[in-house]
Amino acid sequence: MESLSSKPFSLAIVGGGITGLTLSISLAKHNIRHAIYESAAQFGEIGAGVGFEPNFVRTMELIDPAIKAAFLRHAELTDNTKPSWFTVRVGDMRKADSNGVVARKNGKEVKIGEKLFQWPARIGPRGGIHRAHLLDELVKLIPPHIPKFNKRLVDITEAGGGSRDVVLYFADGTTARHSAAIGCDGIKSRTREIVLGKEEARPVFSGKYAYRGLIPMEKAVEIVGEEESRSPQMYIGYHGHVLTFPISKGSIMNVVAFSSQESWTDPQWVIQSSRERMDSDYSSWSPTVRAIISAMQKPDIWALFNHTPARTYFQSRPRICLAGDAAHASTPHQGAGAGMGVEDCYILGELLAAISRSEDLDKTFRVYNEVRRPRSLKLVETSREGAMLYEFESSEKDDLEAIEKTCVKRMDWIWDHSIKADLERALGILNQSIRSEQPSL
Ligand SMILES: Cc1cc2nc3c(=O)[nH]c(=O)nc-3n(C[C@H](O)[C@H](O)[C@H](O)COP(=O)(O)OP(=O)(O)OC[C@H]3O[C@@H](n4cnc5c(N)ncnc54)[C@H](O)[C@@H]3O)c2cc1C
């Protein structure tokens, strides 16, 4: 049964990942009629952990306190008195001298694997969560009639007859009609292709790939000790870096080990590799890093792609708006891709709640586009630069002092941002636009 709607329009969310589900929760809260069309037979996340910093957890709460509560139920919350994003250590033996020394700080020698610097995070609820746990919790907050499964979107057209409605066509031959479609269908988004054209929508290889794995905490403690297994660590080096952080209430250590290659030709982005290749990628790294790598069970390689900057997140005919990875898929080097999707949902949900006529949908999406594009596109660009910095490929090269100086400041714009101020600005523009009744594009 459809819930009573406070609005004379209905929306199609294409894709039920973190963004699609979060948007659905926001729309449901505002009594906005909608459905989620998901290509898979059920909701599900592949991959391992995902981290959220306090600004993103606060945004979850602004959308619905139940999302924050769900996150807190499963996240491994890290020390909140002096929070650290990562403890940074040099993991690559090639940076050490014959005595294993990589730097001298305050008259002391810093050896390979020892703490180089602490990358301070912000105080507040933050931490890592297993993707599957987060998704399961989000699903619980969605009324059961909203999701439609096995609905792979293939095309969207305008319904005609002057209604401006959109018709969604699915691979199973069925169709659905709504006032607008919101594409939350991830990096390989079909909605993005419809808005931008195939060429502009195409993701590009970032030059980096990752091995991802989970190590039971007892085993991780055996390998790297209490301190390094139970708090987030970043081991840096030439053309690679390795991240570890606890998830699932500290019962698992999540590992993402990055490496580089110039191009990616395989049509698959996740390929089976071999233990030999994985070991060889880190053969010049420290015993600790090599031990972490050998404890990873599956040597699958994940190619890391990102989007080039989209000229728009919105088109008016047929009416489609993009959110999350479909709009701005980023590499994961600032741990903020999903967080940016959550921010999209907050702004979009609140703007949609503020209008009461279908005629204002175009204006709403246009304002969302104006407010969200600069920040989310900046993430894509700076994330790529982040990997280069951690992997001695930026202008700082392998100057550890310069790297530290740049690192500790470069996340301020993400973590100290006021999303509430963005919303106020967006609502201001929207109200003015509605008052002056600007013609649609
Ligand atoms: C290694 C790695 C580590 C990361 N770590 C972090 C982190 O710590 N913190 C963080 O904030 N972010 C992180 N990210 C980024 C984050 O994972 C993504 O930004 C986020 O999951 C994107 O969510 P989404 O819902 O927008 O897209 P997706 O998760 O890709 O969901 C898209 C959904 O749409 C469905 N779909 C696709 N095509 C169609 C279609 N044609 N029709 C219908 N349905 C369709 C899919 O089945 C899927 O369910 C990381 C990414 C990677 C690769």
TrEMBL record:
Ranges for domain FAD-binding: 12-382
One Pfam entry name: FAD_binding_3
Domain of life: Eukaryota
InterPro entries per record: FAD-bd, FAD/NAD-bd_sf, FAD_monoxygenase
Record bears the keyword Flavoprotein: yes
Keywords: FAD, Flavoprotein, Oxidoreductase
One BP term from GO: secondary metabolite biosynthetic process
GO MF assignments: FAD binding; oxidoreductase activity
Protein name as it appears in the record: FAD/NAD(P)-binding domain-containing protein
